[in-house]
Amino acid sequence: MTRFNHAEAINELQELRTTNERCCERVVSLAQRIIDDNYTSTLGDQVWPFYEQAAIAALDTQNFTLANYCIDKLKHRFTEKSLRFRRLLGMRYEAQGLLDEAQEVYDSILKEDETNLLASKRQIALLKARRKDHELMEALTSYLDTYYDDCEAWLELCEVYASKYMYEQAAFCCQEMILLQPSNHIFYLKYAEICYTMNQYEMALKYYCKVLELCTDHVRALYGLHLPLNVY
């Protein structure tokens, strides 16, 4: 049997934190072994990001024993005054299915720091999961006031608007996405389809053509190209 190398495990976990890769099951496996072998005493100040990483991975895999252990360690060090620590409490509520409690935690964080990126993203994910579309639109709009260049958030807001038949607002989101990523053919396609839905056939035709400039064999764009032409 291969001997477990604690130093290599620590380096692997640090690399995963640097690259923002979750790899939850792998993180849980390595973290549990490091904790069981009392190797955390060698980590110094790096023990705190280690516990945070392990707690998040444990919550993702429903390993509440490990998650609670790590969260308790972090609570002893940082207390609930720490916004970053409170985000973990919100994530634990989410994992337990206590969505109202999780929402309260994220709301309290954003009251103290409305630009808190991590809490904003968790709040948005939670509102989406709960299908609270009105609150989701407000949260995304507020988020984009601070983080304007987040194309994923613009796309999310676009889709919520479109689902509510708010096509002018959805079209505006597409325009912002195109400005941010002018070489992404998906955003032109989305805009073309919304223009067609609003009976703006000339505009739809223009953007279907733009999709084909960027991706010559795009089937949906080729099909969409015939729709405005059939109207005339």
From TrEMBL:
The protein's name in its UniProt record = ER membrane protein complex subunit 2
GO CC, sorted alphabetically, is: EMC complex
Q: Which GO terms describe its molecular function?
A: transferase activity
The record's comment on protein family reads: Belongs to the EMC2 family.
Q: Which residues form the EMC2 TPR-like domain?
A: 87-201
Organism annotation: Rhizopus microsporus
* Subcellular compartments: Endoplasmic reticulum membrane
Q: Which Pfam families match?
A: TPR_EMC2
* Subunit details: Component of the ER membrane protein complex (EMC).
Taxonomy of the source species: Eukaryota, Fungi, Fungi incertae sedis, Mucoromycota, Mucoromycotina
Predominant location of this chain?
endoplasmic reticulum
